[in-house]
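Hi R.,

Here are the chain sequences for the assembly we discussed:
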Amino acid sequence: MIQPVTRIEGHAKISIHLNDAGEVESAQFHITEFRGFEKLCEGRPFAEMPGLMSRVCGICPVSHILASSKAGDMLLGVEIPPAAEKQRRLVNYAQILQSHALSFFHLSAPDLLLGMDAPPAKRNIFGLLENHADFLRRGIRLRQFGQRVIELVGGKSVHPACSGPGGVHARFTTAQRDEILSWIPEAMGSVTMALDRLKPLLDGFREEIACMGNFPSLFLATVSRQGGLEFYDGVIKIIDGAGNVVTESLDPARYYTYLGEASEDSSFVKFPFYRPLGYPGGYYRVGPLARLNVARFAGTERADRELREFKQRGDGAVCEAFHYHLARLIEMLHSVERIEELMSDPALFEESIHARAALNRREGIGSCEAPRGTLFHHYWVDANGLMTRANLLIATGQNSQAMNLSVGQTARHFFKGVALGARPDEGILNRVEAAIRCYDPCLSCSTHAFGQMPLVVEWLARDGTVLGQMAR
Amino acid sequence: MDSVSRRPRLATAWLGGCSGCHMSFLDLDERLIDLAGIADVCYTPIADVKEFPEHVDITLVEGAVANEDHLREIRRIRQRTRILVAFGDCAVTGNVTALRNLFSLEDVLNRSYRDTDVVIGMPTGNDIIPRLLDRVLRIHDVVPVDYFLPGCPPSADAIFAFVTDLLAGRTPPVEGRKFGT
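And here is the predicted structure of the full complex:
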């Protein structure tokens, strides 16, 4: 038996195992980073958590701040003032927008516009400068808009001080509104441009769409109480790969009764699963694809039009991981619409922004939709409000099993015909990585190396002798 | 820089941190395009080059040294870089990444994988995931550092001023800089 093993440096790795017939038997995406937030928060005041937990991830700090603030709201036992809730929603939409823009324009557009087989030295944002400079510039500015909204509200774009237990820190002003409104036409134009660009491109990726993570799975997402697309506060809904409702409206604060966490030997990421189906059968997908599959409607005009069209791509549910890209663009459209809508909401400008209370509970749970999926923060504190324990259920982690299956499916399809010990085409290896990029794993939440993973494959004989090696 | 005709080679790397410093780097926005005009961005997590190249003029390193991969990587970066910059608070002081030094590594791992609901248990690594260091280190604990650019993260303006100074062969001024922004 010949067993190829990949052994690569970096923060994420991919290993592909072939059986003795030379066929791909299994594939794994390994997350190699571990920082231990669940331990290092112990003994610290819970009010410090939004600032500390923000540092779990520099790409989606706002999600961690919001989940942490909501866990804090529950510890205080308060309902926050409407202005505070509106402001939190605003920064959340801004973050969905900037994070999705990064994923689409900076990281995935090189594959989509230059092609999976383009030379690696060109396949990055700087490579887009040559022939797609306007596209790139619009993408950069779209991300900038999201970051600017966060900066306006929280003082800085990365790790902002925008929210804490009980509410938010500063009133929203009309000057902030005016600046945000001045960005809206350009932002709307850029998302529309990206949608118009991506849709016709999809025809050229039929093989990738069919073979890079196309399988039925459970989909889990937060929805509003009416069943619509929701990012800040709602109920958890799960559907299966045919669109059948598995469960309609679970309480996010009781996530631990229906979601379990497993771990695997060769990755630091955990593998959450839907308890009634056990592990690994109960794996599910989260994030843009899941949210659009689970939500019945978006609730804004343009996004609803796109959502109706999107849903026609599937039979009950869209199961192709490749369509995470399209789903991301539709969510960006929705976010721009919602940001504009919020600007004319008088509640956003109200004076009261903070509910004051002492510690009233010893256990608090906060949940929201992060760009990559549903996020849960669960805290326990002592009588003085010092953290005794924390559990974090991270969005990217919930896609772990689906990412493994997607890498396996991609390798199985594209490795066909590659002779044992021969170096597979560069473009084939890039497709294996592109399968992962569909999920846009926020690797700093669980690891690193956003974008690409270095790859070295070793062919080993049964006794461990290296028969051949392939590096990139 | 080897020759006057060559654009200086700029790299960014990412060890044990949250990527926030790199996000702040991306907050250069359209100035990224200007930067690509005056420097050859030869290695960065957002591009496709897999191995840290030789003959790099300036490297910004985000994050602390937390595992054996980081240790090997920072040594290689130092060897191949003329000017090494500790980029952001985790690189400069250990910051949040080093908070786990308040506990033993075993306690930190046990909390995540044993003292929990997890059904399978502690990842052994299978030689695939790198061994974590007992203590998280600052970059200058491991290799000599030429410049420190603090902040959690440093602001895009601070990064731009710092990098353009270095690219022009000037020593970035220390006045007016403050920590934690």
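The mean pLDDT of chain B is 87. Chain B touches chain A through 64 residues (CB under 8 Å).

Let me know if anything looks off.

Best,
T.
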